[in-house]
Design a protein that fits this description.
5-stranded parallel beta sheet; 5 strands; 57% helix; Rossmann fold; alpha/beta; globular; 9 helices
Length: 170
């Protein structure tokens, strides 16, 4: 089995769903944000503050390249911005199944209100700004092989839907 990449806006559940899918399919799981945090021994918010977003995006690209070269049969949860930079989306699409998780901006705003560790929320700190970022990224996320709407669905329903697509794809 190849790689399964999850993409989508922050807060859509990429890590949560990715872990559940990897458990059900008995595959390894990688969260690219966690991998970067471990590599630099600091949270992403500090990486953004110390070196900026461009540096972080380069790290993301390096991690995606390394995963593509060194893993097989792996579920990968990417950061919200990963598919937007350095050709990462095409790399992922060429090397596995890319599943986009789509959640409404209203629901995401509700989920992320008390979240302090998301660096972009400092910049997009009003619902209007947040929705603008969401709209700007939506066209990229829509290029996934499959898009799953998550609003109003249980984790179990989403995982079943993902797994049905995985078996059709591979």
């Amino acid at each position: 089995m190849k790689k399964i990449f999850f993409i989508g806006f922050m807060g859509t559940g990429k890590t949560t769903i990715g872990k559940l899918v990897s458990d059900k399919l008995n595959l390894d799981f990688i969260d690219t944000d966690s991998l970067i945090e471990e590599r630099l021994n600091m949270p992403i918010s500090n990486i953004f503050e110390e070196w900026g977003e461009e540096y972080f995006r380069k790290l993301e690209h390096d991690v995606i390249c390394k995963i593509i070269k060194s893993t097989e049969g792996t579920v990968i949860a990417t950061g919200g911005g990963t598919p937007l930079y350095h050709g990462n989306l095409q790399l992922m699409k060429n090397n596995g199944l890319v599943i986009g998780l789509n959640t409404s901006p209203k629901e995401l705003w509700r989920r992320l209100q008390d979240c302090q560790e998301r660096p972009l929320l400092k910049q997009y700190n009003t619902y209007k700004k947040f929705c603008k970022l969401y709209r700007n990224r939506s066209n990229i996320y829509a290029q996934a092989h499959i898009t799953i709407k998550t609003d109003g669905k249980s984790l179990e329903e989403i995982v079943k839907e993902v797994i049905s697509y995985v078996f059709k794809f591979f």
